[in-house]
TrEMBL record:
The lineage of its organism: Eukaryota, Fungi, Dikarya, Ascomycota, Pezizomycotina. Its main location: membrane. The keyword Transmembrane applies. This is Choline transport protein. It is a multi-pass membrane protein. It comes from Tolypocladium ophioglossoides (strain CBS 100239) (Snaketongue truffleclub). It is found in: Membrane. GO terms for molecular function: transmembrane transporter activity. One of its GO terms (cellular component) is membrane. The keyword Cell cycle does not apply. The chain crosses the membrane at residues 46-70, 76-101, 122-154, 166-185, 192-213, 233-255, 275-296, 326-349, 380-400, 406-428, 440-464, 476-495. Keywords: Membrane, Transmembrane, Transmembrane helix, Transport.
Length: 505
């Protein structure tokens, strides 16, 4: 219809009103896709969703002592500066690509479009599976972390309580399934994203202020910014430092989350890049002060890392620092609450990614996962499948905690691996590629080169053993997991995907 401002609009297949000047919608139609999801997210809600999914300061709280013991406080504080710089490059690279190719498939779709025809399908297939598997690993990790914090709060008031691994797992299952219902309604989900952002900001302010204010003893500036530690067994501090950066890298994980909502927001070619870069900037602004606060309030590093009372180094820090169970409970609730919102956002991330990849027949039984439920108007079956995979992956902790931790690393490394081929092919093409409103020129080239270096760095360094000498209890099995993935994908490619995986012209 023609409005007073002479802007042309029309109704898409989902019933949403679409501005015909929306480049993203026009490009989406150009590639032959049918609009199935409603464009319910506003640009602000997309930013809230992207920030809630990554939630950098919460990423820092998940296992900050591991980085300290491997490289010292410099590994945490200055490691954040290093990873923020690298993540800025990743964000710029993603922004330029999503601006040119706004599609819910994200990295695999870009690989399909940018690679030479001979390599396009296999490049997209590898990229898509790296992204999907990484999303599943993130989901499994976060449901377990949430359960660990909840039981830690219980143990704070019941120190004689002995909990088995299966009890942690059952609580994690309950948390994951209970939170899954919020992804059944898009309108609720958009409001949930905003509420998650506000909850995260409130929690951040409370923890940042209350932790040092309640600390009975504090450290000095040297400890915060210049303390080195290496109990990993690596003779080289440089190697220990680089492997310890894994915690800082978690603060900027899954930066591609906003790309998978490209079909649920108007003007994705502009709004998605804004959400990605805002996530990186806000991430550093929030997690760097938090890291300094934790180091400033550190009472005893060894006792915090051991976490003998609660089983959680974070809650142990709160309690040993303040000496008050009431304050410690308040602080851990300030962390748990926004973290639960992050789990909901990860559910969205997983379902949209699996749905988009299945739409192009990238997965077995793709005809099921690619469906949009006619009543709920969400990719319900992809959502259920992802929840199920989360439960299976997290169940590995019942057999081997070490092997399970290796799967968790996959949640960080695999999404970055999915950036390698589209970024490489974009560099290979040079100026012979589609450009969107976000065209960074030489800055984009530099950002993509840094992105490739960072992706290969994480793939190599985070595959190293956690400690030396290597034993079954501290082995990093991520290389074995990658080898297993490669075998399964090779089998699936030749038996199914080689013929069925769609090549978009």
């Amino acid at each position: 219809m023609m409005g007073n401002d002479s802007k042309l609009e029309k109704m898409d297949a989902s019933g949403s009103t679409v501005d015909e000047g929306d480049i993203g919608h026009g490009l989406f139609s150009e590639f032959g896709y049918k609009q199935e999801l409603e464009r319910k997210f506003s640009s602000l809600q997309l930013l809230c969703y992207a920030f809630t999914t990554t939630n950098s300061w919460l990423g820092l709280t998940g296992g900050f002592t591991a980085g300290i013991l491997t490289g010292g406080t410099v590994c945490i504080v200055w490691g954040l500066v290093i990873t923020a710089f690298a993540s800025t490059a990743v964000g710029l690279a993603l922004s330029e690509l999503i601006s040119a190719y706004p599609n819910a498939g994200g990295t695999y779709f870009w690989a399909m479009q940018l690679a030479p025809r001979r390599y396009s399908r296999v490049s997209a297939y590898i990229t898509g599976w790296a992204n999907v598997f990484g999303a599943w690993c993130c989901g499994a990790a976060n449901m377990t972390i949430a359960a660990g914090w909840i039981f830690a709060a219980v143990r704070l008031f019941n120190p004689d309580l002995n909990l088995e691994t299966w009890q942690y797992y059952l609580l994690a299952v309950g948390v994951n399934i209970g939170l899954s219902v919020f992804n059944l309604n898009v309108t609720v989900l958009t409001k949930f994203a905003t509420l998650g952002f506000l909850t995260s900001v409130i929690g951040l302010v409370c923890v940042t202020i209350a932790t040092p204010a309640s600390a009975r003893t504090t450290t000095d500036v040297k400890f915060i910014f210049a303390s080195t530690e290496n109990v990993s067994g690596w003779s080289s501090f440089s190697v220990a430092f680089m492997t310890g950066l894994v915690n800082s890298s978690w603060c900027f994980a899954v930066l591609d989350s906003a790309t998978h909502l490209a079909e649920e927001i108007p003007h994705p070619e502009r709004n998605v890049p804004k959400a990605i870069m805002s996530t990186v900037i806000l991430g550093f602004i929030t997690c760097f002060p938090m890291a300094c606060v934790f180091m400033y309030s550190m009472p005893d590093l060894d006792k915090v890392a051991a976490a003998e009372l609660t089983g959680s180094p974070l809650l142990e820090l709160f309690y040993l620092s303040s000496g008050s169970k009431a304050i410690s409970l308040f602080l851990i609730l300030c962390v748990i609450t926004p973290f639960l919102f992050a789990v909901v956002a990860l559910h969205t991330y997983q379902s949209r990614l699996l749905w988009a990849f299945s739409r192009d027949h990238g997965t077995p039984f793709s005809h099921i996962w690619s469906q949009v439920h006619p009543k709920f108007r969400v990719p319900l079956y992809a959502h259920i499948c992802s929840i199920g995979i989360n439960l299976v992956l997290s169940a590995l902790q019942l057999a081997s905690t070490t092997a399970y931790n290796s799967f968790i690393i996959g949640g960080l490394v695999c999404p970055l691996m999915s950036c390698i081929l589209p970024v490489f092919w974009s560099l290979w093409r040079g100026e012979d590629q589609r450009r969107g409103p976000v065209n960074l020129g030489k800055i984009g080239i530099v950002a993509k080169v840094i992105t490739l270096i960072y992706c290969f760095f994480t793939l190599i360094m985070y595959s190293f053993p956690y400690a030396i000498p290597v034993a079954p209890g501290n082995m990093n099995y991520i290389s074995v997991i990658f080898a297993g993935m490669a075998l399964l994908l090779t089998i699936d490619w030749f038996l199914r995907a080689r013929k069925k995986f769609t090549m978009v012209e």
